[in-house]
Amino acid sequence: MDGLGATELLLIFIVILLIFGPEKLPEFARKIGTWYRKLNEYKRYLDEEIRKGYLEAEKMVKLDSKLDNKLDKLSFKRVDVVEKDEVYRELVETAKELGIDPTGKGKVELAREIREKLSEKSGVASDE
Asked: Going by C-beta distance under 8 Å and a sequence separation of 6 or more, which residues neighbour residue 98?
């Protein structure tokens, strides 16, 4: 069924005319028109709200994706920092085992002193 045809509309009109009578028919038509307008206004309002919700969801998906990318980058940086700290800790442990005081020394300085100390112990000259 594609909708109401002329015959169906005529039948509905006759039933309404019989139920309400000819004197109440204009009032009934006005009420139907008012309901129809309100229904269309509500439909437009719902369509607009759905469109706004869709746009908001799209923005949230984009923000979520950007946040994921940033978190991935931060986690890689965190891994780098942790790995570098582990290298420094290993250098400090090795320096202490060799009797080198690691206080206030950076990685490069500790590595140089460890290399010198190891070359002294093995009797091989340092590369520097």
From this structure: 114, 117, 118, 121
Reported confidence tier of residue 43, pLDDT bands at 50, 70, 90: very high
CB 98 within 8 A of CB 82: no
Residue with tokens 């290399």: 115
Query: Would you kindly state where each structural domain of the chain is located, as residue ranges?
Result: 23-122
Residues 6+ apart with CB under 8 A from 94: 114
95, burial (CB in 10 Å: exposed 0-12, middle 13-18, buried 19+) = buried
What's the mean pLDDT in 112-123?
Answer: 82
